[in-house]
Amino acid sequence: MTGEPSRPAARRRGRPARAEAAEGPGARERILAAARTEFAERGYDKTSVRGIAKAAGVDAALVHHYFGTKEQVFAAAIELSFTPALTMPDAIAGGAEAGAGERMARFVFGIWENPVSRPPLLAIMRSALTNDTAATVLRGLVERRLLQRVAGELHVPDPEFRAQLAASHLIGIAMLRYVVKMEPMASADLEEIIAMVAPTLQRYLTQP
Amino acid sequence: MTGEPSRPAARRRGRPARAEAAEGPGARERILAAARTEFAERGYDKTSVRGIAKAAGVDAALVHHYFGTKEQVFAAAIELSFTPALTMPDAIAGGAEAGAGERMARFVFGIWENPVSRPPLLAIMRSALTNDTAATVLRGLVERRLLQRVAGELHVPDPEFRAQLAASHLIGIAMLRYVVKMEPMASADLEEIIAMVAPTLQRYLTQP
Hints:
Chains A, B: Keywords: DNA-binding. Chains A, B: It comes from Streptomyces chattanoogensis. Chains A, B: This is TetR family transcriptional regulator. Chains A, B: Residues 1-26 are annotated as: Disordered. The first copy, chain A, has helices at residues 7-11, 17-22, 27-46, 49-56, 60-67, 70-82, 88-93, 100-113, 118-130, 132-152, 159-179, 190-206. By secondary structure, the first copy, chain A, is an all-alpha fold. Helices cover 73% and strands 0% of the residues of chain A. Chain A starts with 6 loop residues before the first helix and ends with a helix. Chain A is built from twelve helices and no strands. The first copy, chain A, has two domains: 20-77, Homeodomain-like (Arc Repressor Mutant, subunit A, Orthogonal Bundle); 83-206, Orthogonal Bundle (Tetracycline Repressor, domain 2), CATH 1.10.357.
């Protein structure tokens, strides 16, 4: 599977360029924005290319033209939603290894606590948990764009396994705090959470 | 909300006892089994009382009679699916506090690795992540039947917060390993995972 919009493949479908022009400027961006909203609100299963096209005010054929299949539209949409997370490797690196665990925790919770970046992340989790195609797309994106780069910053055995151990903890906390809203986690002081979790992440990321 | 099947409430709907007899013996159990399967395969949103009744070979009215609303059928179904997890407090207690982290990890992974108990757990996670009513039902069940009892075994500040920190880690690993099937976590040796995670859980569960 590919996480790329795969426009070359789409272009081969050969839709005359004047047709794109007819849709007006920024059609591709409108489609992508509509796709994010549709997937976020309905999840992968209930979202259709037709619905995305309608929300973007374009013809469904143009969605296929730019992105290809529904799976490829989803890939492009979550790649965009994932952009904030893609700088995590830099956050973790930060020169000295000491504090990498806390930096990772603050970075991830910074994204989750942000009302703009949380909904698309929630949508990705929901879709990946309920649809195998969506899970495959997410897996590919994370492996290709995030996991390998994070692992590249680590100097421990099985760096990818270590990175996933750390990530799994943050994912689980996010599920309890932001999705299921289980108390006391849902309303716990973020600093308390970070104080407890940072040493764990630090151990996974740096302890030989 | 209530996590109980609330049969008293349902009984008040007053369906003649002879009608139950007409459905044959074990109708309630058949309905519950059908509900677990339907919710597991379709998730909360796509499951209907009508579909559960059809799968159980009974009249939809009997489902309402025994359990009440769809939400209450779900509550009864996940309470049953949750039964294996309800002995966790005993697993964690086990006398000496030393090793509580490893016992919790082995207990939870024991349930996840079991092909019989995994599907209903997956179904619960999927439903809770995609439907607020399902999340509320799960929250109530966990808080009432599990969290308080686990916390009761701990001798640390904020025992419920500590219990959720430990649980969140295991939930996150389960998501990566069993749901998204992210490598290397998906095929990592379980003993390796436990060796890394147990000390973390031990710290959360016992460190003052």
